[in-house]
Amino acid sequence: MTVQTKVLDIRPLVRLLAVLSLLLAGVVALAPPSSATGALLPSKTVLTTDAAPAVAGGDAHLTATVSILNVGFRPVTPHGTVTFTLTPSVGDPVVLNATLGNCTFFPRRCTAVVTAHLTDDLMDGASVVAHYNGDLVAKPSTSNELWQSTWYPAQCNADTFCGHYTSSDSGTTDIYIQVDDQGVDQDYQIEAGFSTVPLSCTKAGAGDTAVWNVTYPAAKEVTYTTYGATAVKSKYTPTRICYSSDQPFRTKYGSWAKQVAPGAYEGLLPLCKPESAGPCVSGADFYPAGGDCEGGCPAQLNTYIRAPEGDPKTTH
């Protein structure tokens, strides 16, 4: 008589034990680390703003996104608080605190949001950093530095001409926006400011990003001006304007502008035709350094833009 021996397949058991070990590792990671080993995981903090620039006297919402690095498969997310420090050019720093929340596991990160009231010393903007204070698992980390810029809207009425001029903090770039008399008794605003964040087609070193909007649906004539080395860098392609809008538009190549984010289209503007409503570039003027300024005038490049309604951004 033959005796058959049944062989037990233990591979499923091995896989189960492996999964349990990973889960236990995650539980261990959530427990306080031993002070003898100091086994804290590194973290990373990224700071963003929802308004660059924001209206002077209004609010900006600052967001710190905190990630724990090197977590592997462990279900670990950061906990604790983030300290936001806003330092104006003149005046004392303003400190705001927020608790982390709104966590996701893939990727493993949490966010903290504060509302900054841009009043008093913060009316003209501020340098901002966010510091994650760490927890039982994660080390503290400090974010990138962000300049929270502001703008002062011009108060206009559509029954008369209105213009608005502003300069960037770097002193390299100006913008002037003008709206003709529309023959309508309606109040509106011209908003204009600058951001240091380039657009997808920005030429490096060729001017700060002008952010501007007119709250009345009228055509605008815009003069984008750069000075000094910034103007010299762009004088060989003076009508090259990198443009961003919340409305689709045709580029200099005849194609539609690329959508770089929801409600954000970017590309190079074409030259204007007589019947064109824009957006387009109607011309440019370059003035070399010298002139009647005390100590000599810097080089200057004026580029003229024709624009329809929309919420645009502009650089060379």
What topology emerges from the helices and strands here?
Elements: H1 11-30, E1 43-49, E2 54-55, E3 59-68, E4 81-87, E5 94-99, E6 101-105, E7 108-117, E8 126-132, E9 141-142, E10 146-148, E11 150-151, E12 154-157, E13 162-167, E14 173-179, E15 187-195, E16 209-214, E17 220-227, H2 228-234, E18 242-245, E19 258-261, E20 264-268, E21 280-287, E22 300-307, E23 313-315
Parallel strand pairs: 2-11
Antiparallel strand pairs: 1-3, 3-7, 4-5, 4-8, 6-7, 8-9, 8-10, 12-15, 13-14, 14-17, 15-16, 16-23, 17-22, 18-20, 18-23, 19-20, 21-22
β-strand amount: 35-45%
Q: Report helical residue fraction.
A: under 10%
Parts with pLDDT < 50 across at least 5 consecutive residues: 1-7, 19-38
Give the rounded overall mean pLDDT.
Answer: 84
Structural class: mainly beta
